[in-house]
Amino acid sequence: MLKEINAFAKRQKVTLYIVGGYLRDIFLNRERENPDIDFCLKSGAIKFGRRLAREIKAGFVVLDQEHGACRLVKKIAGKACTLDFTDFRGKNLEEDLFHRDFSFNSICVELDRLVKGEKLENILIDFHHGRGDLRAKIVRAINQTAFDEDPLRILRAFSFSAILGFKIEKATLRLIKLKKNKLAQVSGERIRDEFFKILARRDAFPYLRQLDKLKILKLIIPEIEMMRHVKQGPYHHLDVWEHTLETLRQLETVMKNIKNNQPLKDYLDEVISGERRRGALIKLGALLHDIGKPRAKRREKGRTKFHGHERIGLEFTENICQRLRLSNDELDALGKMVLWHLRPGYLADNREITPRAIFRYFRDTAKEGVSVLLISIADQRATKGPLTSSASRIRHEKTVLNLIRRYFKKQKEKKFPRLITGDDLIKQFKLSPSPLIGKILSEVEELQAIGQIKTKKEALGLVKRFLK
Q: What pTM did the predictor assign?
């Protein structure tokens, strides 16, 4: 494909350069599922990209008319290859590379020399020692105005640090501290994408902890400030915010220990929206699960209470999702995690869990039944106050693990065909369309699921008694 692009560029008398991430990943031996290649040229990137898209039969979109940037998407062997073309950010290549974000993203090579098979090390253009920073495993901003030009780079420093396992260079870190408030100028969508790159890592906790210490995390989710220094009752040993961070840490430990459970791995790896997967979304759920506690806090008879904090938390969660431009599916999933995170604990408090209680739990949590259970385990492990006991923790985890097994077992089973429909109720009992029909069908479905009724006749008999 690169040879084809180069041949087209030659016919157009255009000199193309590959710059940044594609070369960086070659040196790091990193393979992307869907390749992403950045090109730059002196000028006319949009015009060139449009013509090339027709030539190679690729999708085409203008990214930035003012600064001359476009994107082509080409399907190759089942993979979506993204090709970005941009005009030089300056009068020549050297000025363009000076305005890149980090040193390892400023390494560059002329496409024609690359496709001719010349050795990469011999033709590499590296004005800012990006190759050396790759060897040293550091994230280094190229110039003092890097974060002024695009404040999102502040968050990108941490996402690169998390993805590559690199340290942020000290001078870059000082510059981040100085410029961090500029993040307020960045759109919710762009912040969301970088934030989720961090959440998607197996060990997101230390990077989120660092973002918190630098007072950057509160710029992404300002609501967390309410949780700081809010003391809890004797079941807890940490304040609300420290407990929240500990819950996230425990959640990642639980996720790392899932080695031989393929259904659970597939569950966490499921794409919910865009490229965002459920595993990362559950981590955000853990960060938000107690966000309603500060507003719900009350003292009753000398005891600290947080009645209704999950419903208050749901309101905050909806606002946060809107600000980060998360999809309706993500909002629904996070809402369920926050709203129902106490349910597994209530179930574990019972000596025996009835089939009806289990049915209702999975009915209410739907696809997020396991998400809520994972947060519940982490939540419990992060709770080590003087009134907690090892016996209650063991009982809680046993209950949760049994419910996780039940969820995946249920997924393999064939769903029961409905015994009766709304039309049956209208014909048989002369009912008018109303919420009552939904209530009746829900009751029938519940009793069918727990095995108390098995035939249409039994279902209609139940409805008759119910209506009386």
A: 0.88
